[in-house]
Design brief:
The complex is a heterodimer. In chain A, 72% of the residues lie in helices and 0% in strands. Classes of the chains: A mainly alpha, B alpha+beta.
């Protein structure tokens, strides 16, 4: 059984809220990493309008790096976010969602790929840098934010699924 | 509405697609450029020029090594020539110093002999040798100026040489013990038999008046007996070389121990020395007390 797509307005509102939380959670890097992954991998991807999702991912990447202010050349995270959002959008169209467990698996896989791509892009834009533990907390909390985004986007009142 | 795959059409969405592609590519280029865009080109040029740089480095290193080796060879040759010259100089100096060293060594031995014999010995240098001639001898550089008189004994550390035959004001002639007209009172070490040594020439002499009853062995030492009042008792004369039975006496041939042909300095005994000369008592030198902690 396939799930219904969320409305664009609702999705944009959630993306805006997540972006604000990313900026506000700058003093808490682990929480910021989780919010960043949720926005890029779960909230931003959409099939109907990939450009808007890409813009949200772009904003998420710049917001993250802008609040960190650690790199000599910003933009690597934003480019990786755009790429992953496009990939997630393509996956949504190619393999439509059918349940929460599949959603978790997809988010976990995308989280790993996202961590690798962000690290590579930042290394390409600047130089070698430490990995940090954001990817670990992101992967560890996939069930939490995966369930939350599932309830907000795909199982909300508009879709009729709880 | 079920989710379905996105359809990339050529209508309204083409601009969005174009904007998306441009955004993604532009951002990728921005990421690739990095903080210093020229570094990629620099890295590329560096990578391309690395082989030629390596070859140039090796070529320059080879040339430097060749130049250094050439300089090293030249320096080594110069040093070799200098050392060869120094070696030749040292050899010449050694050859020049050799006679002086020999004289010094001889003087050292004479000094030791002088300390062993408690008599007023006088030293003189041999300035000429007429031994190859008939009735030849040794010419000393000192004569009456040193208080020398005829019939004074002459000796060297190896043994007796002879006696003074004639003395002038500044020179003296030594009659060696192997001269045919020389005679020295001697005795044999083991048998204590006495006799008279008469020269045979060429560093040899014969002992006369030794009875056939005496037992004389080859190699036995022959000492002065002191009976001629020229030499005191106990000075080494030579060693028995041959022993043969004669009609009335033994024929004993003695090889003189003093190298009569290679003498440079001699000691002259005083006239009429005492018959017996005891060597002075020399107390052994006490060993220095070594204290703990001293090297």
């Amino acid at each position: 059984m396939r799930t219904s797509a969320p409305s664009l307005t609702r999705q944009n509102l959630f993306c805006a809220a997540a972006l604000g939380l990313i900026v506000l959670s700058a003093p808490f890097p682990m929480l910021q990493a989780v919010l960043h992954a949720a926005l890029v991998l779960a909230l931003a991807p959409r099939t109907e309008s990939p450009l808007f999702g890409t813009l949200w991912a772009l904003a998420a990447g710049w917001a993250l790096e802008g609040t960190l202010r650690l790199y000599p050349h910003l933009g690597g995270t934003a480019w990786a976010d755009m790429t992953l959002t496009l990939l997630a959008s393509w996956m949504v169209g190619r393999w439509p969602l059918e349940g929460l467990k599949g959603w978790w698996v997809r988010l976990a896989s995308l989280s790993l790929l996202h961590a690798l791509l962000v690290h590579g892009a930042v290394r390409l834009a600047t130089t070698s840098h430490p990995w940090g533990w954001g990817w670990f907390w992101t992967l560890l909390s996939v069930p939490l934010w995966g369930w939350l985004t599932w309830r907000l986007l795909h199982a909300g009142p508009s879709s009729g699924r709880r | 509405m079920a989710l379905r795959a996105i359809r990339w059409g050529w209508s309204r969405a083409v601009w969005q697609r174009l904007a998306l592609v441009l955004l993604w590519l532009g951002h990728g280029v921005w990421v690739l450029l990095g903080p210093s865009p020229a570094r990629h080109w620099t890295s590329l040029v560096d990578a391309l020029s690395r082989p030629s740089q390596s070859l140039a480095t090796r070529w320059e290193g080879w040339r430097a090594a060749r130049r250094d080796s050439g300089q090293t060879l030249a320096a080594t040759r110069a040093e070799n020539a200098r050392l060869t010259q120094e070696l030749a100089q040292i050899r010449t100096l050694t050859a020049q110093q050799a006679p002086r060293l020999a004289e010094a060594e001889e003087a050292k031995q004479l000094l030791g002999l002088k300390q062993q014999i408690p008599m007023a010995l006088k030293a003189a240098r041999v300035i000429f040798s007429t031994r190859p001639a008939t009735f030849g001898g040794l010419i000393l550089d000192r004569g009456r100026d040193l208080g020398l008189e005829p019939d004074q004994g002459v000796l060297v550390p190896e043994g007796i040489v002879g006696r003074l035959w004639s003395v002038s004001d500044t020179q003296a002639k030594v009659l060696p013990a192997d001269a045919p007209n020389a005679s020295v009172a001697v005795m044999l070490t083991r048998s204590r038999a006495t006799g008279v040594l008469q020269g045979l020439g060429s560093g040899r002499a014969a002992i006369r008046y030794v009875s056939n009853q005496e037992v004389v062995q080859t190699g036995e030492a022959v000492l002065t007996s002191g009976l001629d009042r020229v030499f005191p008792r106990g000075l080494l004369v030579g060693y028995v070389g041959e022993v043969a039975q004669g009609d009335l006496e033994l024929r004993v041939i003695v090889n003189l121990s003093a190298p009569l042909d290679r003498i440079n300095t001699v000691l002259v005994l005083p006239s009429q020395p005492p018959l017996e000369v005891q060597p002075p008592f020399l107390a052994p030198e006490p060993k220095p007390q070594r204290k703990w902690g001293t090297p």
